[in-house]
Amino acid sequence: MSKINAAITGIHGWVPEDILSNEELAAMIDTSDEWIQTRTGIKERRILKNKPTSEIAVNAVNGLLEKTNTSPDEIDLLICTTITPDMLLPATANIICDKCGIKNAFSYDLVAACSGFIYSIVTASKFIESGTHKKVIVVGADKMSSIIDYTDRQTCVIFGDGGGAVLLEPNEDGFGIIDSILQSDGSGSDYLNIKAGGSLKPASHETVDAREQFVYQEGKVVFKFAVTKMADVSLEIMKKNNIPINDLDWLIPHQANTRIIEAAAKRMKLQKEKVMINIEKYGNTTDGTIPLLLWEWEDKLKKGDKLIMTAFGGGFTWGSVYLKWAYDSK
Asked: Band of the pLDDT at 99, cuts 50, 70, 90?
């Protein structure tokens, strides 16, 4: 019997219509378009107004179901990865299933900050590899504008709202997810966190006044870790699977910062033409960056292409996923 892999058989992304440009940010805080682009590579980001994260996810999932001609009743499992859930409970995944008419699946949220999508896609793959599940959706979506302090220049220029969803199905022809390396280091929690709102420090007038419900980041420390970990774990999985750098078709990196992406690619000695980037349009959408990349690059992907997804996020969390693309997109 052939080995069962979990293969991506469809991808769909969604972003809000409203755009927040660098020029608009410059009118709000002490910054400029040149300062932002030089340090991050971002020109604009999308902002979801007056609606929750599930709005992003539902649009992505409904688009995916229609695109792949899949009935909601066929879905066995849905995993939503987000750090901006609609509510602490129920899981945003439950809300998505209800709004999309997915009634025969169980669903749950997975939290791993910016590494959430690769953590989730590996988790989902195990259900398919076991032979118990045939159609699994992983959706990565975040409304980062809901947890960003727009008086903090270090963070507000970076993040945007958006996301995407993938359909995973069994494949016995050698395509799909081949291998993964996922890692974490909890000592990094001091450098990238949200201090209040959890059981450690419940929300109060004091925490709100101190603006502790927003993302806090020590940029220089995170930058150093991100470059090293994303590059090293990608090289590690390539070595483990005997993939020469010239044989890799695409690197799909989390869109944290252009300088991080370029430094990681340089560390890997990978030519720029093989690195997917769209941060200039969307900023860092956290759990949404990798599915948005796959969605935008889908028509360039060919059956058999060798891809590596890699991410680094708060926690610290990081990892890489090696997969062979399962279909011709054109």
From this structure: very high
Neighbour-count burial for 78-110, b at 16+ CB within 10 Å, e otherwise: bbbbbbbbbeeeebbbbbbbeebebeebebebb
Best CA proximity match to 216, nearest among 200, 192, 234, 239: 192
Q: How far is CA 171 from CA 176, 196, 242, 298, 311, in A?
A: 7, 44, 22, 19, 25
CA dist 72 and 104 (Å) reads 8
Portion of the chain with pLDDT greater than 70, in percent: 99
Query: Rounded to an integer, what distance in angstroms lies between the CA atom of residue 175 and that of residue 200?
Result: 44
Residue 304 φ/ψ region, left for φ over 0, alpha for ψ in the -120 to 50 degree band, beta for the rest: left
Instruction: Quote the CA–CA distance of 244 and 225 in Å, as a whole number.
Output: 25
One domain, residues 183 and 242: yes
Q: Give strand pairing partners of 321.
A: 180, 309
pLDDT number for residue 330 = 66
* pLDDT of 288 above 70: yes
What pTM does this model have? 0.96
Quote the domain boundaries for residue 168. 5-174
pLDDT reported for residue 142? 98
Cβ within 8 Å of residue 73, ≥6 positions away: 102, 103, 104
What residues are labeled active site? 114, 254, 284
The pLDDT tens digits for 202-233 are 999 999 999 999 999 888 888 888 889 999 99
Same domain, 141 and 185: no
Q: Are residues 261 and 166 in the same domain?
A: no
Indicate whether 202 and 166 sit together in one domain.
no
Q: Are 229 and 167 in the same domain?
A: no
Q: What is the largest CA-CA distance in the chain?
A: 62
Tell me the three state secondary structure of residue 219: helix
Q: Indicate whether 15 belongs to any domain.
A: yes
Residues 6+ apart with CB under 8 A from 304: 175, 324, 325
